[in-house]
Amino acid sequence: MKRQVVLDTETTGLKPEDGHRIVEIGAVELIDGKKTGKTFYSLVNPERHIPEEVVKVHQIDDEKVKDSPKFRDVA
């Protein structure tokens, strides 16, 4: 049996060294390449402004994440 967890994230930008952070996390579990039905999804409050050029990519803005948990609470 081969178990995999496929992760997807969206961020405030591409450079962590510039303080960019995660704004969305999604995960899907696969067993032998087939979805098991186990999933995880959460918006994440990055505690910083999400630049407009990034919002155009993933449509997640400051308003959408303002009441979301912080990364330390999701992790």
Helix content: 10-25%
What ranges have pLDDT less than 50 throughout 5 or more consecutive residues?
A: none
Let me know the largest β-sheet. 3 strands, antiparallel
Strand count: 3
User: Largest beta sheet: what is the strand line-up?
Assistant: 1-2-3
Rg: 14 Å
Number of helices: 3
**Quaternary structure classification:** single chain
Question: Termini distance?
Answer: 26 Å
In what range is the share of β-strand residues? 35-45%
The best one-word shape is elongated
Q: Structural class, judged by helices and strands? A: alpha+beta
Order of helices and strands: EEEHHH
Mean pLDDT: 97
Describe the structure in your own words.
The protein is α+β, with helices and mostly antiparallel strands and 75 residues long. The chain contains 3 helices and 3 strands; from the N terminus they run E-E-E-H-H-H. It has helices spanning 52-58, 62-65, 71-74; strands at residues 3-11, 22-31, 34-43. It has a 3-stranded antiparallel sheet with strand order 1-2-3, with no helix packed on it. A hairpin with a 2-residue loop joins strand 2 and strand 3 (34-43). The two termini are 26 Å apart.
Write the layout of secondary structure elements.
Layout: E1 3-11, E2 22-31, E3 34-43, H1 52-58, H2 62-65, H3 71-74
Antiparallel strand pairs: 1-2, 2-3
